[in-house]
Structure formats: structure tokens, C-alpha cells
Amino acid sequence: MTEEYAYQERPRRRGRRALVVLLVLLLVLVGLLVVADRVAAGVAERAIADQVRQEIAKQDAQSSPPEVEIGGFPFLTQVLDGRYERISIGLREVRGSVQGDAVALPTLDVDARDVAASLDTIRSGQGDVVAETVNGTGIISYDSLAALLDREGLRLGEQGGRLAVTAPVDILGQRLTVTGTADITVSEQGKVALRFNNLTAEGLPNVPLARTLLNNYAQSISIDVPLPDLPFQLRVREVRPLSEGLQVTADASNVPINAVS
């Protein structure tokens, strides 16, 4: 009985060992495919980052090296299909020159969705890479905006979801602290306008001339914000005050991205 039991047990153990070996080989193969997929994605991400860097330079702007991430998994199947779910581009410390005025964007995040690029385009480096939709979110620092207004002691920030201003102003020989909020509008052309219409000052003399001087100051700091040209044909749609700065939201559709040109 013992010999017969041992004879039956040995084939079972061999079968289990074969199954374990097969599973290990499958796991190794999957691991190699994942590594190859990520390596290919990394090569494409570096190529896109280089193209973005060139585009920024053409606009006489500066930024830290672009951070690019191609979304969706696996990457290689997207290459074969000629369509990519998402390409995210992160830019930091973006600075540009517009009519001599420096505009700083500590962050500019671009999200391209449903990006079409044929396999032939990838192979040859010729042709168009087109994103169905592109969304961008950037931040204009309050320090940069205050520098544009060029008024001594002026400070900007967010208060109750609105852009707030505080500044010392000389009115009729008195040094007063002016406070108030701005109306922010975005035109169809994507131009951003700040209008300070309701400024107040504690201790303001109750005479028409004092009110006129305060209104004149409000007009002097009401400006059209000189934004730099945004990449990928992005057009500003909304501006919202946040604690860290003015959040600019922009979008575009059917945008060519020459990442492999």
C-alpha cells in the first residue's frame, strides 16, 4: 500500500511543479511586457517634452523642463490603434513678455484628450498629431499682477471668492488705506479685464473731490491683463481668484500637436 501511494503521489507533485513553473513564466512574461510598454511610453514622453520646450522658446517664454505623462494602459496598443486617451503636460515657473510687461504663471497644466496619431506618423515623424480637446489651467501670481499695476504698497488677494485689493493712497493730504474688490471679465477673444468699481477708504473726507480722487485711483488700477500667448491654441474661458493667485482656465478643440514632427 505504501509503495502504491507513493507512486500515485509522484505524478501529482510533478503536475503541481509544472503548473508553478508555467505561472512563474507567465508572470515573468507579463512583467517584461509591462517594462517594454513603460519604456516605449517614456521615449514618447521625452519626445513630446522636447517639442513643448521648443514651442515655448519660440514664444519668447521660459519655464522649467516640461513634465509629460501619457495616460492609458497599455501604451503600445494605443500606438497600434493610432489614438491616445490622454497626454498631460505640466509646466512650472512659466514667464513670458507681453508688451514689455512680465506675466508669471507658477503653474500651467495642459490636458490633451483623444489624441489621434497614425502608426505611419509615429514611424516617419511626418504628419499631424491632433487632440480632440485640450484643457489648460494656469495660475497668475498676485505678486506678478501687483507689479503690473505698479502702485506702491498695493496688495492683491482672494476674499470671499473675489479679487481683493488693499493699498495706501494719499487723498487731500491724508494717508488712507483703500480696500475693495474687482469685477473680472473674459471677452470672447479670451482677454481678461479687471475693473475696480467699489473702492472704499476709512476716514475718507465727505466731500465730492475726495470721492472723485478715489474713483480716479480705481480707474488707474483697472487694467486688461496682458497674458502671454498660451500653447496649443488655448483660449481663456474663465478666471477665478484662489488663495495662491488667479486661476486661468482655457480650452481648445481639434488642436494639432507636433510632438513627432
> How many runs of DSSP E, i.e. beta strands?
12
Q: Counting H and I runs of at least 4 residues, what is the number of helices?
A: 5
What spatial form do the alpha-carbon principal axes imply? elongated
**Low-pLDDT segments:** none
Radius of gyration: 29 Å
* SS strand fraction: 35-45%
Mean pLDDT: 79
Q: Roughly what percent helix?
A: 25-40%
What does this structure look like?
By secondary structure, this protein is α+β, with helices and mostly antiparallel strands. It has a domain at 144-225. The protein has helices at 2-58, 75-81, 119-124, 142-149, 208-220; strands at 67-71, 83-98, 101-116, 130-140, 155-159, 162-171, 174-186, 192-196, 200-201, 224-225, 235-242, 245-256. The protein has a 6-stranded antiparallel β-sheet. Strands 5, 6, 7, 8, 9 and 10 form a 6-stranded antiparallel β-sheet that branches. The longest helix has 57 residues, at 2-58. The model has no long low-confidence stretch (mean pLDDT 79). This is DUF2993 domain-containing protein.
Question: Would you spell out the secondary-structure blueprint of this structure?
Answer:
Elements: H1 2-58, E1 67-71, H2 75-81, E2 83-98, E3 101-116, H3 119-124, E4 130-140, H4 142-149, E5 155-159, E6 162-171, E7 174-186, E8 192-196, E9 200-201, H5 208-220, E10 224-225, E11 235-242, E12 245-256
Antiparallel strand pairs: 1-2, 2-3, 3-4, 4-12, 5-6, 6-7, 7-8, 7-9, 8-10, 11-12
